[in-house]
Amino acid sequence: MPRRISRRRFLQTTAAAAGGLALSSAFPLSRRARGQGVIKLTQVTSSDQVPYFEFINAEFQKLHPEVEFDLIGPGYDQMRTKIISSLVAGAPMDIFSLDIIWVGEFASQGFCEPMDQSMTDAERAEFLPGALEGITANGALQGLPAGAWMKNLFYNKGIVEQLGLDAPPTTYEQLAEVGKQAQADGVLPYIFGWGWTQNEGFTCDWTVILHAFGGKWFDDEGKWAINNENGVAALTYMVDNLKAEVFDPASITYDDRQVMNPFLAGQYLGMCNWGLWGWSMSNSPDDSKIVGQADVGLMFGTEYAGTTSSSILAIPAISLNAASPSENKDLATEWMRLYAGIGHPEYRKAAMDLSGIPPVQTALWSDPDLMADVPVLPKLADQATYGYQRPSSNVVNYSEWSTMLQTELSKALTGQVTPQEALDAIVETSNVQFPNISAE
Questions:
Q1: Which of 224, 225, 272, 303 is the most exposed place for a label (fewest CB within 10 A)?
Q2: % of the chain surpassing 70 pLDDT
Q3: Could you tell me which of 33, 58, 54, 34 has the C-alpha nearest to residue 45?
Q4: How far is 192 from 271, CA to CA, in rounded Å?
């Protein structure tokens, strides 16, 4: 049985949950008991999520004492391959965690039972904006929201005051201007740092900046469109400010975790990172030299496109195996509704407490009990209104596509090609090798 972890400890050690739950592990085939009125539901999730699963299982058994659970919780990095191999082999499995970056792949294979009829319109409206969009593919909802991660602006209040500002900049253009002035005045070497080494976090940051400049993944016909003038403006902004060292040139060597270090040392005005985790790290005396100085705001918009803000949502799902026996599906759906807090939002408070899973219902981001630990929750939640998705529900081999994207964008950031050339290469490859499944 995995060790239970506190909410605060989880937030300090888990940023990867936002990027992609990865699946695989050698778990035994479960035995579905039919005798003596017992029904067994088999569940697969990552080990860090096990405490919340156990809580829901105990609550569910109060309603359905005839149900037993076979809960399998391998390590986060071991899950994906085994879930797929079990689905393909027909091994017993009813409920499983579905990472946001697998949605298109799983939908293309018909692995997930559509959940569109599992809740009312009023229940849908209780979720954060965008909570269902990223887990919808081929016109069907592939599961129920399992947690809500998003990237926020973290900034140093002391540096804002030192620069003579009342608040941090609100647009990318203003950020660059403030950065150049801060350099000229000798206040800061770099105004901002990013995690732009070649990993999934880079794709997330590209999502943020692309949409701030009015870009989009696809045109009206469903073809890839990031090489239009908005996309070029976004990448040109990144290249220019990295080259001018307004942004820390080491950004191309940092991931999401590493870029925290200069910020926590008080070397940047701000940086973009995952909400609850970034807040916890910024206020940890063991990790941060700016405890009490960090604050949260909206990520920037642009004067170029007239946008107010843009960020990324990472909302994975809890899914039902489409091949699960019919007698299990109604029970599994009822269990999943409890897990998602539908009709029982208090259960999502337990999710944050037991496994550090951020709330999926909008109202909980201003809940007094949760705000006692994280007072900036409402500020973090404001970003969801301006949240965008990676194209993971549109692409079958999303991870392969994302790697290709990172490689081509990096060529532009390092001056090997122009922004237009990099984006043209991405679009050409994407339209041939990674077509939009929603447009087929």
A1: 303
A2: 92
A3: 54
A4: 6
Cβ-based burial of 88 (10 A; exposed 0-12, middle 13-18, buried ≥19): exposed
| 356-365 mean pLDDT | 95
If you average pLDDT over residues 345-374, what whole number do you get? Answer: 94
Q: How many domains does the chain have?
A: 2
Using one digit for the tens of pLDDT, what is the confidence trace for 377-422? Answer: 999 999 999 999 999 999 999 999 999 999 999 999 999 999 999 9
How many degrees, rounded to 5, is the angle at CA 314 between CA 18 and CA 1? 45
Backbone angles phi, psi at 162, to 5 degrees: -60, -30
Structure tokens that stand for 402 in this block = 């994302």
CA angle at 348 for the pair 308 and 7, rounded to the nearest 5°: 90
> Is residue 208 in some structural domain?
yes
Token reading at 229: 């003038």
**Nearest C-alpha neighbor of 111 from the set 138, 78, 77, 148:** 138
320 lies in the same domain as 402 = no
Same domain as 380, residue 368: yes
Q: What is the domain range of residue 72?
A: 7-148+315-388
Q: What are phi and psi of 96, to 5 degrees?
A: -145, 155
Instruction: Note whether 208 and 272 are within 8 A (CB).
Output: yes
- Residue 137 tokens read as 């593919």
111 and 19, same structural domain?
yes
Residue 24 has pLDDT above 80, yes or no: no
CA 381/CA 298 separation, integer angstroms: 10
